[in-house]
Amino acid sequence: MPVTSTTVRTVIESPRRAERTARKETRLRALDGLRLIAALMVAAYHYGGRGGEVTAAWGSSPTVQFPTLHEYFAYGCLGVQIFFVISGFVICMSGWGRPLKSFFASRAARLLPAYWAAVLLVTAVFALPVVAYQAVSPSDALVNLTMLQQPLGVDRVLGVCWTLWAEVRFYALFALCVVLPGATRQRVIMFCAGWTLAAVIAEAADEPLLDLVLMPEYAPFFIGGVGLYLVHRDRRDAYGWGIVGVSWLIGQHYAVQNLWRAPSPDAFANRTSFGIILVVTVGFVAVAAIALGWLNRADWRWLTVAGALTYPFYLVHEHLGWVVIKTLHQDLYLSSWATFAVTIGSMLLLAWLLNRYVEKPLTPRLRTALTKMR
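RE: above sequence
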């Protein structure tokens, strides 16, 4: 999930001279807003669209707390797929014309400070005697600081960190195949085509190592975002549109395959295949509208703040949200809706504090230190 700066290069170019054209810097604030919407979708899913630990926080199933809306909240998990589309767009922008060291420094400096703070904060809160949830062991908590806990089979401190592992693998593939040799339109097209074909082969081969590296179920969303960046550079780019179309077709297949289940009275919520396809389509269309400049009028400064809060909010909202929900609903007897709203608000406030006192001072320092390393 972790998409970063949405300062993008708006390009006015002829198809034959795409690589030589001067670029005008602008900011797509609508992309910041879309990131926050995707994060709020995931939060709605974690608070009211699934069972598990949040049931203990509410004191009963969210189906009881939200008798009708829990069926809609269940689609909130697709906010992750929308994040991945945005990530493909932004990472392609970020890596274009940038040397590998600078690309690495930018990604590491943007991800790690808030992540480290979130891991330490959640570990500390879960270690409190008054908190009913079990903390991971000290050894596992230390491994979590590397962001490699999932492949190492270590218990996770942050429930959402599995998406960061997918993002890291995407960064590595893009860095090796595009940033290292130097980004060009042709190289990006070949990267998208090659990854799409390799991911399909990995699915057919059913080989765990290939699945680990090529991520067949998530690749279409990253690739679709990269294709949309090509469209942003030149809206007449037929190859870019082709990449987007194929990615959407394959992506909706994986989303339905992984998230749809046959209707059952025992299921928490029955997502329909139509609903899943609709949410995936809306995600692609929203990023496409931004790429094409249709939402350039959404240039409000508060959207930049929303974008800055998205990543720290995403990191802390799930597990700390359980603690807040239990306190407000079971201990203070707030209504379900008041608890839901106050929990979202408190997590946004915490995200602001992390952005203000962790990310803003540490991100530029870490970026500078990594850039200067030999």
